[in-house]
Amino acid sequence: MVQFTRINALPSCALTCCLLLVSPRAAAQREGWITTWTTSPEPADPDPKQPILNLQDQTVRERVRISVGGSQIRIRLSNEYGSSPLLVDGVTVADPKDPASIEPGSIQAVTFAGKNSITIPAGAPAMSDPVAFSAAYGAEISISLYFPKRVTTPTWHALALKRAVLSRPGDHIRDEKIQAGTEASSSILVTAVLVPAQPSKHVIVAFGDSIVDGDGSTAEADRNWPSDLIRRLGKTPDGSKLAVVNEGIAGNRLLGNGPIASFGVSALARFERDALSTTGVTHIVLLEGINDIGFPGAKLGELSLADPADVRKAEDLIGAYQQLIARAHTHGIKLIGSTMTPCEGVDIPGYYSDMKEATRQAVNNWIRNSRAFDGLIDFDSVLRDPDHPSRLLPRLASEDHLHPNDAGYQAMADAIDLALFQ
SS3 of 49, please? Predict the structure, then answer.
């Protein structure tokens, strides 16, 4: 029990020290902001063929679609995987017309401690000042960033499913249209958008791998299941009070880092940053583990996804889930477990086997029956073929037989019991 009389009796210097112990997450919530959009920051392997990984004296224009709206926004930038300080010499937000163009008169400057530019230290994020920019529930926002110097080690998100436009040399953040730009299918630097909080609003974090990220869905259509859930909530009387943010990473695993940088660090390693520290979070929906089972011995082209000897048993994944549950509960956050979906027929050699399927079934049985999670979403039962339960139902499967298609993702969103988020 906190004894306020003791605090009142402290000298002023000691009281100041006590106040400094307030956590950053609690302080951010006290200031009245919640997260309405996210993407998980990822490191990038050098690639001279990727223009977005080789920026110099260029503007990048990218778009995000928020969940809950507000009369102001704040932008979070990330140099968390940078090896040197990163200069951003101008940022604007606007209403988009298309990937390259914005609505005339909608542009607003984004500042950082009152300045138009910011140098972000290596390994650090940066939060903007509030911007007077009104955005409705489900609105799309265009964000333009100018990089005057070479970006040597960018922090990005590989599977953005929205086109970003890279300009010719120069600062084009205020241009109504970026002319003759190069397009990219990934995003860079922007990792979160926040809006003013209200007491009734809270945040659901979708956390996991490529089936959270939206692999297999139609690009430019916002058809992953977290986006489908946003649209579903928007049609309910209280839906506009629930933000849904996507912290999926294609190729991610519970227990191990990826064989390439963009698969990200393990879920156990990134859980604090990408889930627990999300401002306003009350619920996390976890869908992760299939890559831990499938990667050992599998090859994606010439890339070995994991050593064949690195076999994960059911108890390995269950132990990881128990760690995430315990960590969420220490923050007073509910963790909702989701069953892993089928993957027989996947076009990645070595990813599926009968032994791996037995592991998936054992873990799913634990998720369903242990009651360790604060709730259950049985995505396996939604997507599996009743006549062949180790496969996705063909009408809900993308061409790779691992990821759902648009109809599959919609079925996932429709199957979620909204009472889980009360």
Answer: coil
Expressed as residue numbers, the domain containing 335 is: 199-421
Last residue of a domain, one of 161, 192, 223: 192
The torsion of the CA quartet 236, 40, 360, 402, rounded to 10 degrees, works out to 80
Q: Which two tokens stand for residue 362?
A: 């054992």
Distance CA(296)–CA(306), nearest Å, equals 4
Enumerate the β-bridge partners of residue 203.
Answer: 243, 281
Q: Are strands 384-385 and 388-392 parallel, antiparallel or unpaired?
A: antiparallel
User: Global pTM?
Assistant: 0.92
Structure tokens at 422: 């009360």
Clarify whether residues 288 and 340 are in a common domain: yes
In 3D, which of 154, 75, 148 has the Cα closest to residue 112?
Answer: 75
CA 289 vs. chain centroid, Å, equals: 17
Domain count, the chain: 2
Coil/strand/helix, residue 311: coil
Classify residue 255: in a domain, yes or no: yes
Model pLDDT for residues 138-179, shown as the tens digit of each residue? 999 999 999 999 999 999 999 999 999 999 999 999 999 999
Same domain, 68 and 184: yes
- With the C-alpha atoms ordered 218, 219, 222, 226, is the resulting torsion angle positive or negative? positive
Sequential DSSP letters for 198-239: -TT-EEEEEEESHHHHTTTSPTTTT-SHHHHHHHHHHTSTTG
Instruction: Name the domain boundary from 142, 162, 192.
Output: 192
Task: Specify whether the CB–CB gap between 134 and 125 falls below 8 A.
Answer: no
Whether residues 175 and 212 share a domain: the answer is no
Return the structure tokens found at 272: 């604090």
Q: Is residue 242 part of a domain?
A: yes
Instruction: Please say whether the beta carbons of 53 and 46 come within 8 A.
Output: yes
- pLDDT of 13 over the 80 cut: no
Q: Are the C-beta atoms of residues 113 and 42 closer than 8 Å to each other?
A: no
Give CA–CA dist 320/371, Å, rounded: 15
